[in-house]
Amino acid sequence: MSTAQETAGGEVEPWEEVTPDAARRLLIAAVEAFAERGYHATTTRDIAGRAGMSPAALYIHYKTKEELLHRISRIGHDRALDILRTAARREGSAAERLADAVSSFVRWHAGRRTTARVVQYELDALGPEARAEIVALRRQVDAEVRGIIEDGVASGEFDVPDVHGTTLAVLSLCIDVARWFTVNGPRTPEEVGALYADLVLRMVGAE
Amino acid sequence: MSTAQETAGGEVEPWEEVTPDAARRLLIAAVEAFAERGYHATTTRDIAGRAGMSPAALYIHYKTKEELLHRISRIGHDRALDILRTAARREGSAAERLADAVSSFVRWHAGRRTTARVVQYELDALGPEARAEIVALRRQVDAEVRGIIEDGVASGEFDVPDVHGTTLAVLSLCIDVARWFTVNGPRTPEEVGALYADLVLRMVGAE
DNA sequence: GCCCACGCTAAGCGAGCGCTCACTTTCGGC
DNA sequence: GCCGAAAGTGAGCGCTCGCTTAGCGTGGGC
């Protein structure tokens, strides 16, 4: 790999931005535990144990258990938004950009399934302020996808009677991958991404 | 309405089968609480309180808190399966049956959103045996949708390269409705059902 | 060689959890 | 009018939760 920040696939190694090392280990342990059992069923003792530390060590790096979830959710949403923005702003037709957005968004939900599960399904465990911050990010996610679809409608590439509803459906399709995808299943993240991109192009009447 | 079991819309009144009355009130309270906060964040005191009873009353009708979730999940999956079977076995073309299945399944996820949330997202809170029973029901749900799509492919109505993957996508679309739908939103369950049925017909190349 | 700031642990606090128990109330059968 | 079964309550048990506190080991600065 070219730098310490990139994998062979070119994807940024996740959680690089979390320092120091002990804080990152705790956060990764929390992602795994939250994804497996859910936020409320996960104990601080479990998180600390997975990170190879005592329960008290958690509180040196994070004020509360909720702050851990907040940090995970914030970073995860930033990454998701980044993926969509990259696809939305590249060169190419609306169909190409939509297919790119869907396939890369799906690849993330499948390949980083533990993170995606926490990001998509544990929002309600956050307090009001943290929740509001994340909801704002979700609106930006929605706007990126809607923007591509509107471009396609304007250029005549797409035939979409209900842009808002179709945007919702496209995001539904992508997000639900985090619910059912498993590494033991018959499909790779790449295969699911390609399939779903094709299905979405059909949904917008681009084929 | 024709009988005590049916609403004006012809839908069977839910939880009719749960008796006695106190057990039903507790179960309905549990559905609301689980849907709002999640199984693990819900206390038995909260459930009993919503039903207007003391915490101890819960244990007269249910052995454990988990038994409540199990009963809810079982009844909910039975109802979901019933909806899909009714659509799959009616008269008509594959396209008509698929549109009927999707629109009624989506209407259920939107209109009975609290139940659907518990049914679709709290599976992991069940113990191994209960979980296995529910997973078997989900396979039947999958089989019903796949059957309609296979019919359409066989008759030449549909153009679907990947039947299993497309089945997964159709169910994803329907199920995710329980995550985002809200009664305060701009759409009625009927509108979302009609929109999603149309999008699914596009996905299978039926238009 | 001393020191102290930092990272961490062992022990444990108060609170709230799922669930139980001893008891009361209600009510149909005779 | 009495009785046993069924349904419900108030009090609280044993436990585990999120989180705190007092103190220990260690390594860089001087």
TrEMBL record, chains A, B:
Upper lineage: Bacteria, Bacillati, Actinomycetota, Actinomycetes, Kitasatosporales
Protein name, entry field: TetR family transcriptional regulator
Pfam families named among the record's database cross-references: TetR_C_24, TetR_N
SUPFAM superfamilies named among the record's database cross-references: Homeodomain-like, Tetracyclin repressor-like, C-terminal domain
Keywords tagged on the record: DNA-binding
InterPro entries tied to this protein: Homeodomain-like_sf, HTH-type_TetR-like_transc_reg, HTH_TetR, KstR2_TetR_C, Tet_transcr_reg_TetR-rel_C_sf
Ranges of residues in domain HTH tetR-type: 20-80
Keyword Transcription regulation: no
One term of GO molecular function: transcription cis-regulatory region binding
Regions recorded as binding DNA: 43-62
PROSITE patterns (UniProt xref): HTH_TETR_2
Keyword match ATP-binding: no
